[in-house]
Design a protein that fits this description.
By secondary structure, the chain is an alpha+beta fold. Strands 1-2-3 form a 3-stranded antiparallel β-sheet, with helices on one face. It is elongated. InterPro entries: Glyas_Bleomycin-R_OHBP_Dase, Xdiol_ring_cleave_dOase_1/2.
Length: 79
């Protein structure tokens, strides 16, 4: 599964003592369900590594509203 690639990146960064470049993650985006990892490159640019494609949806599906206090709005891991 693709999430193992992200975990392998985290392991390699840890072995290189570079885990401080991890800004956020690993995690899973709530809306797209894609695994992600946010890093900062040496120039300070944010880099997102993610697996699976983002869900683009079907225009005939009903609109889903995400409330700021909704737990599903947040990212989660392993669900």
């Amino acid at each position: 599964h693709e999430k193992h690639n992200i975990l392998a990146i985290c392991d390699k960064l840890g072995a290189l003592r570079k885990s401080d470049v991890i800004e956020r993650g690993p995690g899973r985006h709530g809306v797209s369900n894609a695994f992600y990892l946010y890093l900062r490159d040496p120039d300070g640019h944010r880099v997102e590594i993610y697996t699976q494609d983002y869900y683009t949806g079907d225009p005939d599906n009903p609109t889903v509203t995400w409330d700021v206090h909704d737990n599903q709005r947040r990212d989660w891991w392993g669900n």
